[in-house]
């Protein structure tokens, strides 16, 4: 495994690049996962960064963790901020395309994963990637699949940080409203009693996917706090506590199985 940080100064962002040692006989290009951690747009969650990256490395994927710009305390979310983060993801897909031989990443086998607020970022991109990436190679800008972990989908479903937002933002940045025929297949999971981001976010997104006949797999677990990440000791702040949840930890192998079905290998 090699860790390298890529700077994207135009977006005030960096990307932590985790590259596997390629043990395949033909040194084939490998699939990858772009990870957008959560943090309420005010921080980048360490628990949803490297632990998830290393988990996917163990399953044969390269991983890229996006350290997107975050808001200062009490700073208001604006359309410019949200749009900048969506364009950032398009730029990362372009970066992968340009460096595919150096990084040994297959640009046609790149998945996008978002947790919580990072799930909002990923789901917005999933519904707008073609428009956002119109100046780039569209075939290399669409995720092979979208993985959403207890995501924020819109500001109208009970996100605590949404108070005071202008009404036009509430509608324009509802990711469920942007689902269309070009939205990638989706794997989504949530806990039913998430105390911060209501499960209604994920249910609303699943409804939109159903209406557009986009293939998806959804898993809704009975119990679990918000921000579980892997739900194992590998991503927990303490070896004893609510961040370890064995039933919820099943999401990762289920997700990998879903991803493998989409690879043409």
UniProtKB/TrEMBL annotation:
<dbReference type="Pfam" id="PF20434">
    <property type="entry name" value="BD-FAE"/>
</dbReference>
<protein>
    <recommendedName>
        <fullName>BD-FAE-like domain-containing protein</fullName>
    </recommendedName>
</protein>
<dbReference type="InterPro" id="IPR049492">
    <property type="entry name" value="BD-FAE-like_dom"/>
</dbReference>
<dbReference type="InterPro" id="IPR029058">
    <property type="entry name" value="AB_hydrolase_fold"/>
</dbReference>
<feature type="domain" description="BD-FAE-like">
    <location>
        <begin position="16"/>
        <end position="128"/>
    </location>
</feature>
């Amino acid at each position: 495994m090699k860790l390298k940080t890529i700077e994207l100064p135009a977006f005030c962002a960096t990307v932590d690049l985790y590259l596997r040692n390629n043990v395949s006989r033909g040194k084939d290009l490998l699939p990858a996962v772009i990870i957008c951690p959560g943090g309420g747009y005010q921080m980048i969650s360490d628990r949803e960064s490297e632990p998830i990256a290393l988990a996917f490395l163990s399953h044969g994927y390269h991983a890229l963790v996006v350290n997107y710009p975050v808001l200062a305390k009490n700073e208001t979310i604006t359309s410019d901020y949200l749009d900048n983060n969506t364009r950032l993801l398009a730029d990362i897909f372009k970066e992968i395309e340009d460096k595919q031989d150096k990084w040994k990443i297959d640009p046609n086998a790149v998945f996008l994963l978002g947790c919580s607020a990072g799930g909002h970022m990923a789901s917005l991109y999933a519904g707008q990637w073609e428009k956002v990436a119109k100046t780039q190679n569209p075939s290399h800008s669409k995720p092979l699949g979208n993985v959403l972990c207890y995501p924020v989908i819109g500001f109208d479903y009970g996100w605590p940080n949404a108070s005071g937002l202008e009404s036009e933002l509430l509608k324009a940045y509802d990711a469920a409203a942007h689902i269309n025929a070009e939205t990638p297949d989706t794997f989504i999971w949530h806990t039913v009693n998430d105390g911060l981001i209501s499960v209604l976010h994920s249910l609303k997104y699943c409804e939109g996917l159903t209406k557009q006949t986009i293939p998806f797999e959804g898993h809704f677990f009975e119990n679990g706090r918000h921000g579980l990440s892997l739900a194992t000791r590998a991503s927990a702040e303490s070896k004893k506590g609510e961040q370890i949840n064995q039933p919820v930890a099943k999401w990762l192998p289920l997700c990998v199985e879903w991803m493998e079905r989409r690879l043409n290998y």
